[in-house]
Amino acid sequence: MKNHQPVSGTVSLLPVVSLKPVAMAHSGIWRFTSVLIALVATISLLAISTEKVAAADSDQAQPTLPTVDLLINGTPLTVEVAATNQQRYMGLSFRKTLPDNQGMLFVYQVERPLTFTMRNTLIPLSIAFISNDMVINEIHDMDVGPGQLFDSAQKAQFALEVNQGWFSRQGIEPGAKIVMP
User: Fold this and answer.
1) Burial of 18 (0-12, 13-18, 19+ CB in 10 A)
2) pTM to 2 decimals?
């Protein structure tokens, strides 16, 4: 092989062609642009990974999520909507309080068996498992404490967490229909 210098046995190096005269003419702009692109890419990746790690591993509640107003048996309820995997994972973890007529609605793409825990949850809650046509299938009280699993007996597309006892205080039972006014 012509113009190659053997390094060892079967490996050889190709000669490097210098583009120094061309590169030097634009070196300031090229360096600035390269550094800027690398910096933006690095910050973007760090922000994405830091957000996921911070939300999953922190001991802080996630920021307040977008809300919608619901009516259940004529009773108004404002709920934060947890629609992404990360939002559902964090749920009401680390929240110290939950106003009485507020809650969190967990939204899934399709009906399926659901399981909830009280991992890192500091307030006792009640949960309603809800069908795809917005009818409450079942309601469970969930006490504070690790190692508990709360399974839906039927497939559900939504779950609604509120302060413990809220459903019973409002006279809401399985079969109640949820509407958005």
Assistant:
1) exposed
2) 0.69
Instruction: Extract the tokens encoding 82.
Output: 């947890």
Q: What is the pLDDT along the chain (181 residues), one digit of tens a residue?
A: 455 454 444 444 445 554 555 544 454 433 433 333 333 333 333 344 444 444 455 689 999 999 999 999 999 999 999 999 999 999 999 999 999 999 999 999 999 999 999 999 999 999 999 999 999 999 999 999 988 999 999 999 999 999 999 999 999 999 999 999 8
Residue 78 vs residues 10, 99, 153: alpha-carbon distances, Å: 72, 10, 26
Q: How far is residue 50's CA from residue 45's CA, in Å, rounded to a whole number?
A: 8
